[in-house]
Specification:
By secondary structure, the chain is mainly beta. It has a single domain, classed as Immunoglobulin-like (Sandwich), CATH 2.60.40.3880. Helix content is about 5%, strand content about 40%. The longest helix has 10 residues. It is globular.
């Protein structure tokens, strides 16, 4: 899932003031939702059950039993700002539907009317009785359903990508798009390497993420202005976090030649004996993968 920020692909640290998962800091000091992976990462409403898995990082490591509360918010995302959170999704609004399941991993069905409320199909009548204008897609041609995660006093958001029909384009273009469409796949992290893996406090550690080749997928999208289907390739980026220090930068690009990305972690002077590094990869169309590695801190 895609994360969004108001200042959530689902990765920045999330708080009630800045409900975001596109993280700008890499140091974990409290339980924090870093990412949400969806299987499948894109689905049509009513097509079946989707598995949502939240990666929750904490000072002692991954919090596998985090009591995450979930909700869908049927308010379209602003296509001009993929990080903007609709204000209605923050409160108790009729557009917000709580999900009965809770925890770091849940199974849920995408609402059957999601393409109508947040996609290109004709939306419900507004408060004045006039038809609302359907939202525009993002730069990859996608429509998304806002997903709210609440962990204690903190709130974060992710966006689930919808597979919707395209009544807003000519029939021949829609047919061409359907003929070329293939389901998006989550990017895969084959491993995270830390060198050296045993270090004293204050040391610099080189961390390398190995992303499976092919994770940056080719896909077709509709060029609405050109009224045609065009070829594109996903941009994969990498986000970093640790409970034991700060990275040189919170986000890096993937080297497409090597399918790797490297960052430098400086361990804190009081780093715990088991330092954890979390790496999250996103493909720009809602696909997410994550993995972690441990570093032994000498005392």
């Amino acid at each position: 899932m895609r994360f969004a920020s108001s200042g959530a692909g689902l990765a920045v640290l999330a708080t009630t003031c800045v409900p975001s998962l596109d993280h700008t800091t890499s140091r974990i000091t409290a339980p924090t939702v870093l990412a949400v992976r969806a299987e499948p990462p894109e689905a049509a409403p009513g097509a079946g059950v989707v598995r949502l898995v939240a990666l929750v990082a904490g000072p002692a490591g991954t919090v596998v039993d985090a009591p995450v509360q979930w909700a869908f918010c049927a308010v379209p995302r602003a296509p001009t700002d993929a990080t903007e959170i609709p204000a209605r999704c923050l409160g108790d609004d009729p557009a917000v539907t709580s999900i009965a399941a809770s925890g770091a991993s849940i199974a849920v069905a995408v609402p059957s009317d999601a393409c109508r409320t947040t996609g290109p199909e004709t939306p419900p009548l507004g408060a004045t009785g006039a038809l609302a204008r359907p939202p525009d897609p993002d730069g990859t041609g996608g429509y998304y359903l806002a997903t709210r995660l609440t962990l204690g006093a903190d709130v974060a958001f992710a966006w689930y990508r919808l597979r919707c029909a395209r009544p807003d384009v000519p029939t021949d273009v829609a047919r061409a798009f359907d003929a070329r469409w293939a389901p998006n796949q989550n990017p895969v992290l084959d491993g995270v390497d830390a060198s050296p893996s045993v270090s004293p406090p204050g040391a610099l550690v080189t961390v390398t993420a190995r992303v499976r080749p092919g994770s940056a997928e080719a896909y077709g999208r509709i060029d609405v202005r050109g009224q045609a289907v065009v070829d594109d390739v996903e941009r994969v980026d990498v986000a970093w976090a640790s409970n034991a220090g700060s990275f040189a930068t919170a986000r890096t690009a993937l080297d497409t030649a090597t399918s790797m990305s490297t960052n430098t972690l400086r361990l804190d002077a009081d780093a715990p004996e088991r330092a954890v590094v979390w790496v999250v990869v996103r493909d720009g169309r809602g696909g997410v993968g994550f993995a972690e590695a441990a570093i032994t801190v000498l005392r």
